[in-house]
Here is the input.
Amino acid sequence: MKTFKSLVLLALICYLSNASAQRIDVKEKARNAATNRADQKVDNTIDKSLDKIEEGIGGLFKKKNKSTKETGKDKSQKRNDVAAEDQQQPSFATYNKFDFIPGDKILAFDDFKQDALGDLPAKWNSTGAAEIAKINGSEFNWVQLSGGDAYFNPQYITQMPDNCTVDFDMVINYSKVAYAYYQLRFGIEIISSATAKAQTENANVSANTGLTFNIHPYSDQEIHAISYLKGETQLETKAQFPALSSPAPIHISIMRQQQRVKIYFNDKKVYDLPQGLPPAQHYYLRFSALIDAWNDNQNIAKMYVSNLRYAAGKPDMRNKLLSEGKLVTRGILFDPGSAIVKPESAGVLKEIAAILNEHKELRVKIIGHTDSDGDNAKNQQLSEARAMAIKSILVEQYQVNEDYMTAEGKGETQPVDGNATTAGKANNRRVEFVKL
Here is the structure.
């Protein structure tokens, strides 16, 4: 089998190398990718294509069988279309009920790249064992949360606005031997106290006011929601999410609209609580870990968090596009250095598609923007590929009229925020829809 895969891979490289003298040297790109993958943005497409072949997916050969007859479309536009298709965009069918749309302005973004492995995150406060770690071969850093009775506060999520969103990637790692022990849970909390630890002695509920989502990976993959006012429980309910047992990252999305709170685990809306948050002057976000002494000593239960994004505002996408003529979104997310759209972008894409399909006469230009990391020329190409990928998804998966959309990229040339901070970079990584 390995010999067959090697022959297929070699045949592909030779075929692409000899197909057109004007195209890039794929052999050279492959060698560069093997030795310096970190310097790839647009070139990342080549690596992904080779990886697909190694896994037995012959998609590129399939594409070569398509008719090459010109239909009047500009040739350069056609090349961009092919590049976007080669990104192997995921299907958003499973996210058809996902309606999470992040806030307009990013207040904080944390991927922990600025922190050294083994250190406590510089912008966090903790009463337990929190340190930066690498997991699952991930290219970015994670904050590892553990401890017998510990609380972890991101110091940049303070005095949350009435309308705001928080989303992040989460991994829960635990051993099956932990199943037998009830006292093992992790928490995501919106709490009215800014202190790292504030709880009653035995209730595992804050002594003041807030909303807690307790994650119990050991017991039927349950998520308990508890709303409380000055230490008194106002609401208590539970739901299940079977994927808690998977080692794959889970994307958590939280939307606050005054007292109403929605929380999603991947594509599933786990809770929609219209009165989830009792009235309070300020709210803060914190994480918690409650692990009994035996499990904590055995070091078999940990929670990991990364790519934490905190944004303010209640987006009015319809008004922005139809009345003001320009919609700017930071809710269309991509894999690092590529034009592959992440499935958690479905809420934004679905809303935009609904507007365009309802107003069929509307013509728009899709403009991609990047931050300033990396090479200027590659950022320009990356922004173009991302704009084309969005157009392709709107056409192929949401049936928007292709003839009424154009796509282009501006690279890093039009920043709207500074590139010195992670939040500034996240604000600059955006997509604009401009009415023509």
